Amino acid sequence: MQRAFQQTRAALGTLATLCNDMSKVSALSEISSPALTERVTTREFIAHVQKAQEVEGTEWSGDGGAATIAAQTATDLAHAVAVVAKAAFDEAREEPHAMRVAGGLGHDGLGEGGNGLVMLAGTPDALPALAAGPDVAEARQVDFTRGGKGLRLIWAAFVLQRHHVQTWTHQGHRAAVGFRFPLVQA
Description:
Blueprint: H1 2-30, E1 38-41, H2 42-50, E2 59-63, E3 68-71, H3 74-90, E4 98-104, E5 116-122, H4 127-130, E6 139-140, H5 152-162, E7 166-170, E8 173-181
Parallel strand pairs: 2-4
Antiparallel strand pairs: 1-3, 4-5, 5-8, 6-7, 7-8
Helix pairs in contact: 1-5, 2-3, 3-5
């Protein structure tokens, strides 16, 4: 009997989480084009991501430079990045997790134009392949509809899209995802 109550409580908790996530997705889908009025330095944004529970224990490297990105809410954008990174980390739970940051104006590893903030998340052996960027033949779109992740991954996809963040993965490395954020004038 006690076990049945515990299972019921767990199921209700899951249902409550799904309802909360669905309300977030619904609210985002109703906004036509949000104003990205908040300005945050790349260093501040990286610090927001590093504080997220989803990326706890992750090894960090690199520097985002002294640039600025625009956000509707920097904390929501940082949380969306952390949710997507966690989904990639979950593909290789037993392996170490790493995030590499590069950015600024005229950075060689940022592809055409060389401007932006790039964050790579995954296993350490996957990051070099992912660093080639979203324009190489081996790059693939991120599948935000993967099962077992609830609605958080879909919410994260909405947030990233609203902020014009480009995402990609690499065909040989499921446990990795890249993010490219556009820079703005401070």
